[in-house]
Automatic annotation (TrEMBL):
GO biological process, one term: phosphatidic acid biosynthetic process
One GO CC annotation: plasma membrane
Phylogenetic placement of the source organism: Bacteria, Bacillati, Actinomycetota, Actinomycetes, Micrococcales
Single annotated GO MF: 1-acylglycerol-3-phosphate O-acyltransferase activity
Matches recorded under InterPro entries: Plipid/glycerol_acylTrfase
Keyword field: Acyltransferase, Transferase
Record-given protein name: 1-acyl-sn-glycerol-3-phosphate acyltransferase
Domain Phospholipid/glycerol acyltransferase, residue spans: 35-154
Region (Disordered): 226-264
Length: 264
């Protein structure tokens, strides 16, 4: 109930006015049944913008820090996140992260939509980073299709470090569902998990037009935080997931707006 109140009354109308989101591929989201919405991650607002263009409720996982803040702001943030169904995840890994994925699996088993960012954290520089295999495990254990989602321009609206986004048009490109049923029962094979994850990341790269870097985003963030310049981080040259050659991709452009014929 609170989800739809936030989307349709309290927050959604303001976000639509600020970002005027354009979308392609909306028909790729099934009208019912479980599906994993696997998205690139450029800004905090990603989790709020995607639901604006969807007719179904979607639940994301979010870092546990959103739920542990202090003071009025911290309580409001935690309340908002819980209200829109965000599932907290401890990014330290191990059993904590496994618990969040179990919650996501339960959501899929109930026939819902579950949103996940395979990179595990926001991109530090707008590039697409190596995916973590949790998304592959979810796909193989649940049998749900994976729908790749490319957020376009949200990092321009809300660069890292900027709390309040600036109004500007942003986009969403939704790809065709990816079916991994051929790997059913192989969710404990790490090579299969990596192959599935790379296929998902390749689709995200193709949809978003981002340059791909074959290291984890968290690793790159740690290097930058340690004072290592971006040009000195030792990141591998641009390629494609799975070690394939990098294809020639372009960042999608928004559709041209049709002029109002009543205005000279």
């Amino acid at each position: 109930m609170f989800y739809w109140l936030m989307k349709r009354v309290l927050v959604g109308p303001l976000l639509r006015l600020m970002f005027r989101p354009w979308v392609r591929g909306l028909e790729n989201i099934p009208g019912d049944g479980p599906a994993i919405m696997a998205s690139n991650h450029l800004a905090v607002i990603d989790s709020f913008v995607l639901p604006l263009v969807m007719n179904r409720e979607i639940v994301f996982i979010g870092k546990s820090e959103y739920f542990t803040g202090t003071g009025l702001k911290g309580r409001l943030t935690a309340g908002f996140m819980r209200g829109v169904g965000t599932i907290p995840v401890d990014r330290s890994g191990g059993k904590a992260s496994e618990g969040a994925l179990r919650t996501g699996l339960n959501r899929l088993n109930d026939g819902g939509l579950f949103g996940i960012y395979p990179e595990g954290t926001r991109s530090p520089d707008g590039r697409l980073y190596r995916g973590k295999t949790g998304v592959a495990r979810l796909a193989l254990e649940s049998g749900a299709p994976v729908i790749p989602v490319a957020m376009i321009g949200t990092d321009k609206a809300q660069p890292i470090g900027k709390r309040l986004p600036k109004p500007m048009r942003i986009g969403i490109v939704i790809g065709e569902p990816l079916d991994f049923s051929r790997y059913q029962g192989m969710e404990n094979d790490r090579f299969i998990l990596r192959s599935v994850t790379d296929e998902i990341m390749y689709s995200l790269m193709s949809l978003s037009g981002q340059e791909y870097v074959d290291i984890y985003a968290a690793t790159q963030k740690a290097r930058l935080a340690a004072g290592v310049k971006a040009s000195e981080t030792g990141a591998p040259p641009p390629s494609a997931p799975g070690g394939r050659p990098a294809p020639d991709v372009q960042v999608p452009e928004p559709p041209q707006e049709t002029p109002d014929p009543s205005v000279d």
